[in-house]
Amino acid sequence: MRALVLHKPGELKLEQIPIPSCGSKEVLIELKTSCICNGSDPAILAGAHWETFPIVFGHEACGTIVACGDQVTQFQIGDRVAWWFTVGAFAEYVSVTPEHVAMVKLPETISDDEGPLFELAGAAIRAVEAAKIKAGDKVLIVGLGPSGLIMSQLAKNLGASTVIGWDLYGMRRELGLQLGCDGVFDNGACSVREAVINQFGEMDVVIDAYADDLLPGSPTLNDAIAVIRQGGTLISYGHPQQGRMIDIFDFQKKQVIMRGPVNDMQLVRLYFQKAVDYAVEGKLKLAPLISGRVSLDHVMDGLELVMNHPETNLKILVDIQ
Ligand SMILES: [Zn+2]
């Protein structure tokens, strides 16, 4: 089969390799469309987050089960599935052990193009669920990239009365409004602290969903903490290699509760299914996030777009077949 193999950081090659075997606890999945991850793929390519090589590159995929181990009970041949999290998305086939991941069946109403974006939805809902949003809460999403644009919709579905977002790029802010944000702010151009407090008051929940801090001056997270109410919740989701800076005094003074995304796999499976249900009901829209597509032999071109042109690119699909 054709597969894009990462031999070591920076060394990516399209090769012919054997179709993976399907063990008794595994399913073999034929992939049709995958997706470039805007955060982790560039990071893994650069040498972060991953230690064992070679690997088949990519992790956002969906496909149809074509072989099923005899100990697999939840899935069968013919099921179209998405899952969080394994590598191996940029190849014609991948074998996955369902008990090691959160795997969901995708109904027919979900297109092959939307399919791979469910990996992202399954990951993003872990952050929004960790916030334990209550009816009427005001939620700020810092960073309206692909994850933030999914989180903004999920926060509304989970009961938030007001959801607002910050982003440096106009295309992302515009899409945030289209997908249901009550307000969006350009944190590169205005004093977001004052603008948010004046228009929406203090926030109950802030979700940090941005990648690198691109702004000079005060770290972005300080502005986020400045608009959280006393005792509010900060969910940390974005994880730049250089870490995050915060004003710890402001954090302590406000008694901010900080949490990471849910990582208990049993819960992740439940939440992931909830995300699929929202999409089926039309309450989670993923197709608007697709901004382009490349073939398997042009993944580097797609990576270049998401890394160097975030102002015009969101999700880039990879056509496998
Ligand atoms: Zn990803």
TrEMBL record:
<keyword id="KW-0560">Oxidoreductase</keyword>
<protein>
    <submittedName>
        <fullName>Alcohol dehydrogenase catalytic domain-containing protein</fullName>
    </submittedName>
</protein>
<keyword id="KW-0479">Metal-binding</keyword>
<dbReference type="InterPro" id="IPR002328">
    <property type="entry name" value="ADH_Zn_CS"/>
</dbReference>
<dbReference type="InterPro" id="IPR050129">
    <property type="entry name" value="Zn_alcohol_dh"/>
</dbReference>
<dbReference type="GO" id="GO:0016491">
    <property type="term" value="F:oxidoreductase activity"/>
</dbReference>
<dbReference type="InterPro" id="IPR036291">
    <property type="entry name" value="NAD(P)-bd_dom_sf"/>
</dbReference>
<keyword id="KW-0862">Zinc</keyword>
<dbReference type="InterPro" id="IPR013149">
    <property type="entry name" value="ADH-like_C"/>
</dbReference>
<dbReference type="Pfam" id="PF00107">
    <property type="entry name" value="ADH_zinc_N"/>
</dbReference>
<dbReference type="GO" id="GO:0008270">
    <property type="term" value="F:zinc ion binding"/>
</dbReference>
<dbReference type="InterPro" id="IPR013154">
    <property type="entry name" value="ADH-like_N"/>
</dbReference>
<feature type="domain" description="Enoyl reductase (ER)">
    <location>
        <begin position="10"/>
        <end position="318"/>
    </location>
</feature>
<dbReference type="Pfam" id="PF08240">
    <property type="entry name" value="ADH_N"/>
</dbReference>
<dbReference type="InterPro" id="IPR011032">
    <property type="entry name" value="GroES-like_sf"/>
</dbReference>
<dbReference type="InterPro" id="IPR020843">
    <property type="entry name" value="ER"/>
</dbReference>
<comment type="similarity">
    <text>Belongs to the zinc-containing alcohol dehydrogenase family.</text>
</comment>
